């Protein structure tokens, strides 16, 4: 058959090419100061949209240029592209000089070796490690290694509630424990209204919630030496508790199982749900047409009622880190830029604009961060927030366990009662996927 | 809705179409129109709502109308710039791809030569590897070319044009071979007897006869480049970002601007649909029946 | 070659034209033009090598390496794993292999249904619109609209319509027609397969329509006239002339749609995000999950290589079958 031969010969061509291609990775130069007058900076999308970010950041970059004579080329990279862009940059060595990274990526990116390690010497150039809040530093890379980035903006979870709906249901103050929350939720959940909102199909959000609950049950999803351990009692109890709010307590609307595009926030804004667990949601409520005095904010519940360390953890450490790309041709300039961005003045200004908490201690004293919402977030961050596991396969963790929670929500939404065994089975699957990859 | 009515003009068959045919056509085309228009209707009605209304319960008739989203789309995202980039990239990729494919298809359909089968099968087999995985290698190649020759392929429109034209090339070649084969050889041979060179015969005889096919291929090439998301997100920078990727910027970490996504999609689709309208008559002109004899 | 690609034989009008393979050109200046076909192919070939073959070759190499984030920065330092990545991918007793097999199966069923429906709708519409009638030009443009809308926008609109509580689909099915019991989920659970299929067909059929429409233009009128003379009604004309004449176009079209749908990434990714529901876990998203989302490019590459081999096999069989079928139908 001539055709078969044709297929075979084309396969040969392909494999010959494969053999001929000495698979070349990116050049791994270790950074230099070849072009001391320019910098490229990839910012993440923090404001309402990319254009707004450019407008916010550009004046600051101009300020930096005036101070140092270094011109910063800004690109605001949308979240949908950021990680892929960083991975391709890592592979090829062709990337920015300074970049924003989601702080949960720190360990994963640290393992690639593409980011400049923040040893003592480098930290000293930006004013020393002790300028930063401890909990924020906890999410900058694996323990025992020099951090891969410095904290730039910090965030934590809080409980947002609808004041009018609470009043109508006769609830005097926001719940402090999960028992109170489910009881309050049950009072509200009737007649098309629901107690709590969730983003059941948003993997990262699922992870953030069950991680905190696992901490409250005295456990974690990883052992102390960084091995995946998804099926321990605390982890199973945490996941079960979260999905049971839909399956058993019925305070989360079944429809939330498919939410992944912040629909829970618009439900909240429309008065369809009374509570959401979110980080800095004020601007979104506003753009959805909800007035600032219509909602209140409180710390996320803990079993004991008083947030703190360990079992009283009530938030993951959310936020953005600033990293320097190892291949930079302007190491000194990059460090100067990091120093500029983490300076007290810039921190106050930028965090105020973005509604986040400055991870720089001195900047937190600004009265702007005493707003009720930010006060809750700030105190949470300072006293009761814990960093997600700093393991290099963190993104696998998010994908596998996040998907497990998503699947469980899907089952709960279809009216299935979830037993501990069901939850454990789903987590076992996630663990196996993790292990073999 | 322009529901199909009794045929006018010269039907293909000398006999009038039977009622059963006309009724099947009416029913089928009406249903199909409904299927096609449903999402378009949703887009139009959502684009005319304020953001806080979009995510509410679906209603056929929107309660409050606003054209604000049509103004906001330009401020949220540099839509005009992305649109311009897309137009240049897709346009250039289409022209190059069609020209190159015409040459290749002509060679395959009109000549016997060694390696013909290897060529066509190899070209086709390139379509079988998931794009997601040769994304990284391609990026690496572009960066290496840039470093060694100074030709900026990564981050430039040129690199994207090159990528996209190659994406549409295999199927363009294959489809054009089909269309060219149905152009009778006698036509170009007659032209060659009249003293035309092979290239002249291609452009004077074969191409004009295959216009509907070429237009179809051009539309395909354009749409391939127009809608591609994955490679564009990695191979472009802010200055060269295309529309397909740029639209995603309407959905940010905390907000999804549904109404603006819909408004922007409609706005940018209008020129494309208008282009289709213009191409219509070429799609149906083409080979005249008389030429076959 | 003429057996592989579309030869003129599908078109009954030029049936007397002998296949190119047996044809001895009587054209002048043959020797000078011996190099011409290669020259004509050169640009296409160079581009294919640069943008497709070379990256695929690198992809092959990746499949044999342990390419996790630890080695991303310098691929040459990544250790060779031999067939290790393949072992993981095809060990169907382990979760990874099992999931891959499941995803493969879903993709096959999905692709067959989607291609079938796209082809059916496209061909039916093109045939019905072969004759002029009022509004034909308008409909023709309208039908290309799904193709002209940016993928992201189109799919997100469908996602919007498929929402359980606020979407149009449930509103119509349950509230207005009373067909559904309560509000079913479309974006999670088992229904997601049909949601994906709907979107895929909606986006894909205009392409079939376009290609068939262009193909119909080349069918000579005389054939219809002759058939009508023989007393064939319109349905018979469609069956006896239109459809057989479309064969060469269809051969490529179906293959194009098949490969396209099989490897489609954008539609499921925009519709479901990075974790597709099991019922709609297409292979492209699955591979994305196994490489980008988990930072293990070796396993992803190995899966892709297996996929490539499978598609090569299917395409080969398809071409053999369709070419033979065509010969048989001619004889």
Automatic annotation (TrEMBL), chain C:
The keyword Ubl conjugation does not apply. Residues 1-28 are annotated as: Disordered. Residues 104-318 form the ABC transmembrane type-1 domain. Keywords: Cell membrane, Membrane, Transmembrane, Transmembrane helix, Transport. PROSITE patterns: ABC_TM1 (PS50928). The chain crosses the membrane at residues 36-64, 104-129, 141-161, 193-216, 245-262, 301-321. It is found in: Cell membrane. GO terms for biological process: transmembrane transport. The keyword Amino-acid biosynthesis does not apply. It is a multi-pass membrane protein. One of its GO terms (cellular component) is plasma membrane. InterPro entries: ABC_transporter_permease (IPR051393), MetI-like (IPR000515), MetI-like_sf (IPR035906). PANTHER family: ABC TRANSPORTER PERMEASE PROTEIN (PTHR30193), INNER MEMBRANE ABC TRANSPORTER PERMEASE PROTEIN YCJO (PTHR30193:SF37). Belongs to the binding-protein-dependent transport system permease family. This is Sugar ABC transporter permease. The lineage of its organism: Bacteria, Bacillati, Actinomycetota, Actinomycetes, Kitasatosporales.
């Amino acid at each position: 058959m001539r055709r078969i031969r044709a297929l075979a010969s084309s396969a040969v061509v392909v494999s010959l090419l494969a053999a001929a291609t000495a698979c070349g990775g990116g050049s791994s130069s270790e950074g230099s100061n070849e072009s001391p007058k320019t910098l490229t900076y990839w910012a993440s999308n923090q404001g309402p949209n990319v254009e707004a970010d450019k407008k916010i950041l550009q004046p600051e970059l101009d300020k930096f240029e005036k101070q140092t004579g270094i011109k910063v080329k800004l690109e605001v990279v949308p979240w949908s592209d950021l990680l892929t862009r960083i991975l391709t940059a890592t592979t090829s060595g062709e990337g920015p000089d300074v970049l924003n990274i989601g702080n949960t990526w720190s360990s994963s990116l640290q393992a690639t070796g593409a980011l400049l390690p923040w040893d003592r010497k480098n930290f000293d150039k930006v004013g020393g490690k002790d300028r930063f809040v401890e909990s924020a530093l906890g999410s900058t890379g694996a323990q025992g290694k020099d951090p891969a980035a410095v904290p730039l903006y910090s965030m934590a979870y809080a409980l947002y509630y609808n004041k009018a709906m609470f009043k109508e249901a006769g609830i005097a103050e926001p719940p402090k424990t999960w028992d109170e929350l489910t009881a309050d939720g049950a009072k509200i959940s009737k007649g098309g209204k629901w107690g709590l909102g969730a983003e059941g199909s948003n993997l990262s959000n699922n992870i953030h919630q069950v991680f905190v609950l696992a901490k409250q049950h005295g456990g974690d999803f990883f052992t102390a030496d960084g091995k995946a351990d998804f099926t321990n009692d605390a982890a199973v109890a945490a996941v079960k508790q979260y999905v049971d709010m839909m399956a058993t307590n019925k305070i989360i609307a079944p429809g939330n199982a498919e939410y992944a595009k912040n629909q829970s926030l618009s439900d909240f804004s429309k008065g369809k749900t009374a509570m959401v667990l979110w980080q800095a949601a004020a601007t979104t409520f506003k753009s959805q047409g909800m007035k600032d005095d219509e909602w209140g904010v409180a710390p996320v519940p803990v079993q004991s009622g008083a947030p703190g360390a360990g079992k009283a953890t009530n938030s993951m450490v959310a936020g953005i880190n600033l990293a320097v790309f190892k291949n930079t041709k302007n190491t000194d300039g990059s460090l100067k830029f990091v120093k500029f961005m983490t300076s007290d003045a810039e921190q106050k200004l930028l965090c105020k604009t973005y509604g986040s908490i400055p991870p720089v201690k001195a900047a937190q004293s600004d009265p702007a961060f005493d707003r009720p919402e930010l006060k809750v977030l700030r105190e949470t961050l300072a006293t009761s927030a814990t960093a997600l596991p700093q393991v290099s396969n963190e993104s696998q963790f998010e994908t596998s366990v996040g998907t497990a929670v998503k699947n469980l929500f899907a089952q709960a939404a279809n009216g299935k009662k979830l037993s501990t065994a069901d939850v454990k089975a789903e987590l076992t699957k996630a663990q196996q996927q993790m292990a073999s990859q | 809705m322009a529901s199909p009515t009794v045929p006018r003009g010269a039907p293909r068959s000398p006999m009038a179409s039977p009622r059963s045919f006309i009724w099947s056509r009416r029913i089928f085309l009406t249903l199909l129109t409904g299927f096609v228009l449903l999402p378009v209707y949703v887009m139009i009605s959502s684009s005319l709502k304020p953001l806080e209304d979009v995510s509410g319960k679906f209603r056929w008739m929107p309660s409050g109308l606003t054209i604000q989203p049509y103004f906001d789309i330009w401020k949220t995202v540099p839509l005009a710039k992305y649109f311009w980039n897309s137009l240049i990239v897709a346009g250039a990729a289409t022209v190059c791809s069609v020209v190159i494919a015409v040459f290749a298809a002509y060679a395959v359909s009109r000549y016997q030569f060694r390696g013909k089968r290897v060529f066509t099968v190899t070209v086709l087999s390139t379509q079988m590897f998931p794009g997601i995985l040769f994304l990284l290698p391609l990026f690496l190649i572009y960066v290496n070319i840039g470093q060694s020759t100074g030709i900026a392929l990564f981050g430039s429109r040129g690199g994207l044009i090159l990528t996209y034209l190659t994406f549409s090339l295999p199927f363009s070649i294959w489809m054009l071979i089909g269309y060219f084969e149905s152009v009778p050889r006698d036509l170009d041979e007659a032209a060659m007897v009249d003293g035309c060179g092979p290239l002249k015969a291609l452009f004077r005889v074969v191409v004009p006869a295959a216009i509907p096919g070429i237009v179809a291929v051009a539309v395909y090439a354009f749409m391939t480049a127009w809608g591609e998301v994955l490679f564009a997100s990695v191979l472009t920078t802010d200055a060269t970002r295309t529309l397909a990727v740029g639209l995603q910027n309407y959905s940010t970490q905390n907000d999804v601007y549904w109404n603006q996504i819909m408004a922007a999609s409609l706005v940018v689709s209008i020129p494309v649909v208008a282009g289709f309208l213009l191409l219509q008559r070429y799609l149906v002109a083409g080979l005249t029946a008389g030429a076959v004899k | 070659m003429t057996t592989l690609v579309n030869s003129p034989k599908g078109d009954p009008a030029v049936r007397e034209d002998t296949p190119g393979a047996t044809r001895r050109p009587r054209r002048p200046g043959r020797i000078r033009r011996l190099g011409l076909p290669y020259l004509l192919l050169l640009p296409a070939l160079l581009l294919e090598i640069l943008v497709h073959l070379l990256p695929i070759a690198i992809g092959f190499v990746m499949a044999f390496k342990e390419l996790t984030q630890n080695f991303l920065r310098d691929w040459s330092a990544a250790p060779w794993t031999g067939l290790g990545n393949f072992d993981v991918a095809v060990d169907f007793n382990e979760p990874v292999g099992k999931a891959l097999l499941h995803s493969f199966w879903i993709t096959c069923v999905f692709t067959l249904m989607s291609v079938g429906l796209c082809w059916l709708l496209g061909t039916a519409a093109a045939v019905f619109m072969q004759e002029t009638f009022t509004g034909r030009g308008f409909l023709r443009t309208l039908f290309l609209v799904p193709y002209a809308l940016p993928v992201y926008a189109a799919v997100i609109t469908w996602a919007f319509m498929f929402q359980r509580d606020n979407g149009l689909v449930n509103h119509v099915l349950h509230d207005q027609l009373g067909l559904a019991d309560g509000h079913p989920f479309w974006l999670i659970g088992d229904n997601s397969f049909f949601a994906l299929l709907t979107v895929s067909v909606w986006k894909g059929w205009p392409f079939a329509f376009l290609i068939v429409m262009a193909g119909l233009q080349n069918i000579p009128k005389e054939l219809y006239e002759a058939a009508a003379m023989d007393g064939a009604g319109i349905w018979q004309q469609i069956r006896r002339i239109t459809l057989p004449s479309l064969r060469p176009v269809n051969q490529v079209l179906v293959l194009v749609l098949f490969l396209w749908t099989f490897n489609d990434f954008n539609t499921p990714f925009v519709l479901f995000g990075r974790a597709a529901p099991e019922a709609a876990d297409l292979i492209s998203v699955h591979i994305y999950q196994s490489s980008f989302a988990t930072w293990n490019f070796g396993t992803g590459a190995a899966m892709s290589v297996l996929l490539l081999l499978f598609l090569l096999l299917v395409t080969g069989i398809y071409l053999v079958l369709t070419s033979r079928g065509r010969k048989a139908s001619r004889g």
